Amino acid sequence: MDSIYSVNIERAVLSSILFNPEEIEDVLGVLKPKDFYLPAHQKIFDVMVKLHSSDMPIDEEFIRKRVDSKDVDDSILLEILSANPITNTLAYVREIKDGAVKRELANLATTIKKVALEDETSANDALDVVQGELYKISTDSATSELKNMEVVTGDTLSYIKKMKELGNKHLIGETTGFYDLDKRTTGFNQGDLVIIAARPAMGKTALVLNMCLKNVEAGKGVIFFSLEMPAEQLMLRMLAAKTSIPLQNLRKGDLDDNQWSNLNGAFEDLNRKKLFVDDGGSVNINQLRARVRKLAQNEENKISMVIIDYLQLMQGVGNKDRHQEVSDISRGLKMLAREMKIPIIALSQLNRGLENRPDKRPMLSDLRESGAIEQDADIIMFVYRDDVYKEREEARKEKEASDKGEEYKSKFVNKPVEEAEIIIGKQRNGPIGTVKLDFQKQFTRFIDKENANDAPIEVVFESIADTNKETNIEIPNIL
């Protein structure tokens, strides 16, 4: 057990703080009271922390007044006071932290045995418990040190040089699949949590499938968690977008010879791509994290994006109210995006309250459980198609007239291509505004509007200069 704790090292660190109280600032960046092995040392360090936060002296007298003699024997304090002075306190602190993490892992081994052999728990629930505990240990053991200005400016200069090498291109991250959207966002970047929200029937699943298709066709690896529909339905929609065969024809198998040939070619192409679909119907943040890590460990998978359809269908962990569950899920997704250095795109439902407004374009306040989602997200986009509401309104008028025995002819014209608005409601590192796309209903496909490269884009800037310039990068439409 010597490898997972050292009373002498703990004693030396506490002694160092007593003789140099300003050192507690550095120690607090790494250690918590529970990281000490000896209970008496935990109590003493806890008192030191409280004295420091109260701007009171950290000395022998103040500590003695605040510790219970039953918990901390006089001899322990004397041993701390008589400990040999040390010069590199942080090296000792890291040893304590290392031992604390190893003890946590040893305790986890006991937990694994208990849930696997002793408790009447299903295998899935046992895995959930273990993954949750391991995640707590990994996040608690993560430490970061303050960077001085020389380090920060050096890192920033390296970033600027990297961007310069790209030739001032507007696409820096993974493509959204659309020219103007890439131009507004620079693509989906490392560590981004992207929320795409809409009311039902607006086409948010179709939009992310189009994004997914564009990335896998570029040789990137994408993980798609489909909590609402089976993988076969997702693939039918993707095939309609890829082959220009109407979705209804694919569903019925009503294809002519050319379409069959086109479909076979699409299957052969997709079979070589890195798309991974989880359509189990239920997943919590611990399970999702474990599955993403497992696939990402294999570099051949080239995982560069994760998509979740949709956030409100994810399960919580533990007995918490739904608001807290969504907060934990949202924060967990953001932390996973940063850890894996990839964008995570999560679809979200909107509150139906917006249906009562004359202008039904979504706003941030329309997000369900919006507080946590709005806080954690780097980009929030809304999908809006005005024709959906026009069709519903005309259908309502027609029904009301029919109920009264009157005649009413619907003024709605069902067009094969409808205009769609992608409203950027939040962008942490860029402008907000609206990008217009066309939606081809029979192919469940969003495409850039004709002459998109030249069309003006409606943009609202949030105290940020738009430095995007025209480039020669080519982002072709989905064909």
Automatic annotation (TrEMBL):
GO BP term, example: DNA replication, synthesis of primer
SUPFAM superfamilies the UniProt entry points to: N-terminal domain of DnaB helicase, P-loop containing nucleoside triphosphate hydrolases
Domain of life: Bacteria
The protein's Enzyme Commission number: 5.6.2.3
Annotated ranges, domain SF4 helicase: 167-453
Listed GO MF terms: 5'-3' DNA helicase activity; ATP binding; ATP hydrolysis activity; DNA binding
The reaction(s) this protein catalyses: ATP + H2O = ADP + phosphate + H(+)
Top enzyme category: isomerase
GO cellular component: cytosol; primosome complex
Gene3D superfamilies, A to Z: DNAb Helicase, Chain A (1.10.860.10), P-loop containing nucleotide triphosphate hydrolases (3.40.50.300)
Cited Pfam families: DnaB, DnaB_C
Keyword list, A-Z: ATP-binding, DNA replication, DNA-binding, Helicase, Hydrolase, Isomerase, Nucleotide-binding, Primosome
Function: The main replicative DNA helicase, it participates in initiation and elongation during chromosome replication. Travels ahead of the DNA replisome, separating dsDNA into templates for DNA synthesis. A processive ATP-dependent 5'-3' DNA helicase it has DNA-dependent ATPase activity.
Family under the similarity heading: Belongs to the helicase family. DnaB subfamily.
Protein name: Replicative DNA helicase
